[in-house]
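Researcher: Quick sanity check before group meeting.
Model: Go ahead. Protein one:
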Amino acid sequence: MLNLKSGYFSRTMDTFRDALVHVVDTKIKSLRSIAAEAGVSYEQLKKVKQGKTQNTNIEDARRDAGVFGQAVEEFILSPAGSTRDDLNAVLQLLAPQEREILLYAAKAQIASRAQLQPQSSEDP
């Protein structure tokens, strides 16, 4: 039996560097693409990833985290891809029939949520 409280699925990182290493090592994005999208120095990011420097300036960190649609704090606490990694790990533990039930339940939840959203009284 899987113990979810053991921290097995936890992806909380301790530092900006830990989160950066996670997204690069899990192939979510490359350092070059992060640097290009954020408009920051690739060489600086490389030094951070390699541990040659333990920090970067806060503006660059904000830009880097922004590539993933997150604030720096969010990026460190739950780097991009961690939820997806957790879901994939859980799905691999389920039997095919259990995965189908879970998929059906998720689709039903989405449909239910759409029905509960208030309709606008204004005509488009």
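Researcher: Fine. The other one?
Model: Protein two, sequence then structure:
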Amino acid sequence: MEIGVHLPHIGPLANREALIDFARFAEERGFDSLWVSDHVVVPRTIASRYPYSPDGRFPIPPDLPFLEPLATLLFAAAVTQHARLGTSILVVPMRNPVITAKQLATLDALSNGRAILGAGAGWMREEFELLDVPFEHRGARLDDYLRVIKALWTEDRPSFHGTYYSIDDAGFAPKPATKPHPPIWIGGHGARALRRAGELGDAWHAAYAGPEAVSKQYQDVRRYAEAAGRDPDSVALTVRTRLPLNDLERTKDELQRCQEIGVSHLVSEAFGADLDKLKSLMDGLANLRVKALA
């Protein structure tokens, strides 16, 4: 199982020096990937329920620094050599898909094939409204946008005609370095998201909610893949989680559970204002990773 870590591009460490230090440290300690989250603007009043906290409250205050994710990954690409670079997740329906495809193709080309697109439909209506983008039908738009992106990445004369986006006979270069295209990991836990992962994804990127729940939903993803005429084994299981890094025995147990249900890549969160403490936590996880591979 590969292990990646979230970059500190949110909060007090969202600055040049901390990002360089942490990205190079994580790569030197053998982590497989570096990750970013996505919010362009944080509304001051949010009625939408945040799906990943028990009380439904979004934990990030509106004035907390939050660096743009794709720009952050391009920056990280310039100061690292080997770690893969991914979005967990990019809210694709908030963006023009051609520009998104171009940014990610640029990232993949300049990083020598290290980009991963973790994509999702989004949940915060108020953010869509501030960006003047429709919130309704965002899932269907995401499906169209992903097909546009794939066409631009893989076709010599890209064309796509969908319900929410059309493009015809476009020139698009350079193509990504990764062939046939950078991996697309689909986030979300609703029925439509699971179907999307099975039909369009190279992986389902789950917010970890325990082995039983994730394993059960992954079986749904595999069934959707098979129904779409795809090999279910071609859709990997990946997770994002906040490991109990202050307790390495518990962390070891969590990693073991993830391995047992077939997780191929785990993204570990670790947020804070103290870079040295953050690196210490990551160092403990790196030592566990080394022991697991021994």
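Researcher: One line on it for the slide.
Model: The chain has a mean pLDDT of 96.
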